[in-house]
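ARCHIVE CARD
Drawer: 12
Card no.: 0347
Subject: one protein chain, sequence and derived structure
Cross-reference: see card 0346
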Amino acid sequence: MVTKRTTELALIAIAVSFTLTLAPAQAGEAPTFNVDHFRVYSATGAGPEIDVDLKDQFFPGGVLMAVGGVRYLLPPVNKDGEGIREAGDHLTCYDITPVLVGHQPFRGQVTVSNQFGVHDVVVSEDRAQLCVPSTKTQPPTQPHSQTLEHYKCYSAQGKSPLVSELTLVDQFANESGVEWSFPNNFCTPVDKNDEGLVNTEDHLTCYETSLGAVTPGAVSVLNQFSPTDQILDVGIASSLCVPSKKLAVVTTTTTSTTSTTTTTLPNIDHVLCYKINEYKDRCLNDLEESCKEVQDCPLVDLDEDVCLGFDEQDVTIVDRFGTEDLVAKKPKLLCPPVEKTAEGIPLVNPDLHLKAYQIKRTDGKHARQFTAMQDQFGSHALHTTKEVLLLVPTKKSLFNPIEEGWTEPVDFFKCYKISTRKKHCTGDPLVDCKVDADCTAAGGTCYFGIGKGITENLLDQFEELTVEVKKPKLMCAPAYQGNILRAYVNPDDHLMCYKIKRKDERYPKHVPQKQVYLRGKLGSEVVDTKKEKILCVRAVRLDGDAPTD
């Protein structure tokens, strides 16, 4: 059972007025489509083990992909009584991976228009599927239409429109009160092996929903990959795909696309960190069930369960200051990506969060390290004094436990308490000064700190607020686990974290977000947010190989 939180979501939307502004598609006209809505059911089945050439709007020259096993089955669905155009149109979705070594995956921000308005999603080819038109051969049998295209589905992240609950009726279930939130996939029509395309305009934007109530079980399908009946093991529905138009693309790769702009997104987002309360002694798949160990938790059509409550873990962490054996203690903060609205820069990865764990060295003491950093608030000459937090890339859901298999596109961050040196030259942080004239040789001006009265308007997936930025508290360096063979994703990307004070007459207090499901490298948790704690902004090093005095 997944706990429903309709009232809480409504209160949050009212209390903080945090709904995505959904503009009409074209001067008040809703876009029209020639494809149905689809309900997304998990499914397993053998793949054809072949390579296919796929051409879509992100890869017009084509890319060779290896087809793996079945991941999803998508039957058409009647949403809110709108009806179904083609009852026989089903999609069977197979995992696909690039064949050629060195393939540059697509990543960018797409502006989509559907019946809920216009909004942005960040799409990535890190996890992709090929969805093949299929006929469900169990009674009633009805072939799929000849206008149903193949679709290539990219992982996606974005803000939740937070619209009303849905009623969804398909061949397996009749459900009302279905809750839905963030985009999780974006699907483009794709030309497979030069077979051609009829409908190039109708895309699919898929949104996470509360889990369905029905497990269909064995379902038989026919398609190009299985010309004879193939039996799929179909599980629970967890998403809804909505017909959409693609309006514009901002790319973050060198791939040739239909992009209407050449804006380059930064590598990482700012994050706003909230204090959290962790759920303990509750079953991950049924928060109403208490437990002391995993055996106390019944499996409910999912591949695992967890008795919640974080146990300390030994971790070996590598960053630019060295390798350390640490103990990761309880989670302390949840840090969703946040927009500083005055910047006008879209989020790089709206659904990727950082979860902060308290850390402690297993032996010895931290050796002070000097570093110079630059961020939007100024340059900083500082010493690290103690390691305090480990920020772990984390995926979040408002409704459901999160499956394994996603890949984090950013590094861990190891965060240190810091002592800052004021009155230094911005051109050379090792040179002390009292006035700007003292920095003639070193360059820059004399830096006295960030000053007082700096305010920022912030917008994240929980709320909109205004804060006053106080002095810097932490410097966070990119890091990775030393027992995993890998390198940094972005070794130059750092975070500087500032103490903040809420200064917002509109929303004087944070409205806690209840029962947030999290999954990262150190495990799964469910948490409630309490209040905002620190703002961490993108930062870069100024010192290079500076001395470690």
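Annotation on reverse: Residues 6-16 form the longest helix (11 residues). The two ends are 56 Å apart (CA to CA).
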